[in-house]
Design goal:
The structure is a homodimer. By secondary structure, chain A is α/β, with parallel strands linked by helices. Chain A has 3 domains: about 5-55, 434 Repressor (Amino-terminal Domain) (Orthogonal Bundle), CATH 1.10.260.40; about 55-165 and about 295-320, Rossmann fold; about 165-290, Response regulator (Rossmann fold, 3-Layer(aba) Sandwich), CATH 3.40.50. Helix content of chain A is about 50%, strand content about 20%. In chain A, the strands form 2 sheets. A 6-stranded parallel β-sheet of chain A has the order 2-1-3-4-5-11, with helices on both faces. In chain A, helix 1 (about 5-10) packs across helix 2 and helix 11 (about 225-240) crosses helix 12 (about 250-265). Chains A and B meet through helix 4, helix 6 and strand 2 of A and helix 4, helix 6 and strand 2 of B. The structure holds a DNA duplex (16 and 16 nucleotides).
Chain lengths: ~325, ~325
DNA sequence: ATGAAAGCGCTAACAG
DNA sequence: CTGTTAGCGCTTTCAT
């Protein structure tokens, strides 16, 4: 049988309320009894029962994480694993537990969110992605339940969110690419999914920067973030154009793109691409990789969420600077 | 304020215990009152408080999952995401919640396991990987706490585990490779990390099969599961040998291996490789991919664990058949 | 500075 | 079939 607060009380010769106070390190307990109680706790290896505590405090120290399967397909899964690592690590630091739930579609997401909230199991919820007219967000708002979303949401009013500063990163990526012996004054943006906020924001930064530098810019958008699309786009571009400078939105596109270049032995290019990934030696010099630091997103999300739960929210939503 | 069982009782004009019985669908409640109570539950949108229930039943309907960071690096992360999806899905089906915890090293794993168990938060624990002299396993055994481990453990006594039938899969992979117009009677195994049970088992199956077919077999083991090692091994092999038939342990090794072959335009090979991955068109014919179905591992792990928790364990440990 | 007692929301005997 | 009662293990007034 597990040891309870009562047994600690008996062992230390005090009341249960005293033990409880020692646990929360109340200032109105003498050091001597604190000492005694702590010793008993240690010796008997007492761990408070979280369920019991949760019941009375109406706090569980648990965060719920909603994972949309589609998003996992869309982004690369290393991205999500790293976000999750960030979440897990920060939660541990803040003494919170994490519950997660994979959802197959928007409906399931909404239901999981509701269920998690209504069961009283979690103190706050983190949505791993956001969509247009997100029902889960609307629900959480309506219930005034603490939540945070990863990725810039459609409506930003009273919604906590974290994201990379995609626009700035793309802006600087252009400068970076053009700073190293520019081959010519043309630059192209290789991406996919123009509905995605990430795509839109990176495109914005790209265009602004290109304009400032007086470059001729072009945008090529594929249908999805896949190697195949990267390959196809490269093929399309090099059929007619003579591009040299590229911003590539994501690593799958990049890989397909490079594959084409290799096959055609086109090495006279400058590329900046998002997400860290393994490059062959021949590309190390030509491709500048921008690490978007997924684990920082997870870290920041938990920070904000916990602050929100504990009512000490000076932090507004946070934009993670992608350092170069 | 959240609606409680008491309010349902009042609304339906019955006692709280009756409501409780209706919730658990007790056979000793008349259909008429069941009807009435269910109506009230629905109308007032009542959801049982899991904490309260957990406190009295000493069951939480929560499973803990320990994720070792090292393992994530070792295996490819899509593997883990898919295992997690399998876990999540099955847990949902069985009405369990999932808590997870990333651990940086063995010590942290052990501590997380202990903490999870002692806090009374979880009914069972799933270890996402196993090591030699695993302290967490020893602890869980000692505490007689329900747990399951993914991957074949060192000591199998009284330990529930799930794994692929790696040996059989490799056995059949060899037959498969040699069945399609074998180029010659030599076959090589490309792997890494001979300490890993997975490597050992696949190697066993490989060698048995090669022996049965009277093939000359060779084993090449790299230092890690990386593209670079795959490339290096290919280089090493084709410097001196004239191999045609290969079993490759994992997709990173495969990718590096193929890259070398492409560069040297060596296409006269037959390969079977583990894990599904995207292949270029040129390889579709030559490389046979064996899907190890990670989500099935997660699924089976939860099934076994829940059975074990609920005392209805006819299931022993389970080996997932890798279909070809 | 400490203890007694009430109660969080629920389930499970025990009674009838 | 249904109600009454006694906790589960903890925190938190309210006394002292």
């Amino acid at each position: 049988m597990k040891v309870t607060i009562k047994e600690i009380a008996i062992d230390a010769g005090v009341s249960v309320s005293t033990v409880s106070r020692v646990i929360s390190d109340s200032s109105k307990i003498s050091e001597s009894t604190k000492e005694r109680v702590r010793e008993a706790i240690k010796r008997l290896n007492y761990k408070p029962n979280i369920m019991a505590r949760g019941l009375v405090k109406k706090k569980t120290a648990v965060l719920g994480v909603i994972m949309p399967e589609e998003a996992i397909k869309l982004f690369s899964s290393p991205f999500f694993i790293e976000v999750m690592q960030g979440i897990s690590l920060k939660a541990k630091e803040k003494n919170y537990y994490i519950m997660y739930d994979f959802c197959k579609n928007e409906k399931e997401e909404y239901e999981s969110t509701k269920k998690l909230l209504e069961s009283g199991f979690v103190d706050g919820i983190c949505l791993m992605s956001t969509r247009k007219e997100d029902k889960s967000i609307e629900y959480l708002k309506k219930m005034e339940f603490p939540f945070v979303v990863i990725g810039e949401p459609e409506k930003k009013d009273s919604t906590l969110w974290v994201d990379n500063n995609n626009s700035k990163a793309a802006y600087e990526a252009v400068k970076k690419v053009m700073s190293k012996e520019p081959k010519n004054s043309k630059i192209a943006f290789i991406g996919a999914d123009e509905k995605l906020t990430m795509t839109i924001n990176r495109m914005k930064g790209f265009q602004l920067s290109a304009k400032e530098l007086g470059l001729t810019s072009e945008v090529y958008l594929g249908n999805e973030f896949s190697r195949e699309e990267g390959y196809r786009l490269a093929k399309e571009i090099f059929k007619t154009e003579n591009q040299k400078n590229f911003i590539i939105l994501e690593d799958n596109l990049l890989k397909g793109f490079l594959q084409y270049l290799e096959e055609k032995t086109i090495f006279d290019v400058n590329i900046a691409s998002f997400n860290k990934t393994n490059l062959k030696d021949i590309w190390r010099e030509k491709v500048f990789l921008i690490d978007i630091k997924p684990e920082k997103l997870g870290d920041a999300a938990v920070s904000i969420l916990v602050d929100s739960i504990e009512g000490k929210l000076e932090t507004a939503s946070r934009v993670i600077d992608i350092s170069m």
